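Following the same procedure, backbone shapes were mapped to integers, yielding the entry below.
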Amino acid sequence: MATQVGVLPLAATQTLPLAPSLSPLQLIDRSRQGLVGTEADRIARLLGVSDKEMAPLLNQSVATFHRQAKTGRLDAATSERLLLLGQLANYGATVFQDQGKFTRWLRRPLRLLGDRAPLELMDSPTGVQLVEDILGRIDYGVFS
């Protein structure tokens, strides 16, 4: 199956467009504007996580996650987390050259993380940065 440039394959009939990487100032501006609630579902699909798994990544209960996902605009803090998670998902898919391989890697415990899976750490900005750093090491062939 041929893949269009700028599109990640999901299943035989589903694709998600890749979002361009944002500069820090663009990320702040987009966060302050607030993302639409449906972005949470889109990014959850990119990460290969359920609603129950996505809510903690946003520091929310599942009920709050569902309520916010149905509203018009998300608050700035939730929007920023989603943008960071979306950028991480895009970077991971690029590094692994396959969305499925990346989402499986997110669930695999790594010795480098004290035998925790990357997904377990992504509920904090520091954890997201740590996972991004590890992806960078994989991307540049620096293994530990």
In short: The chain has one domain: 23-139.
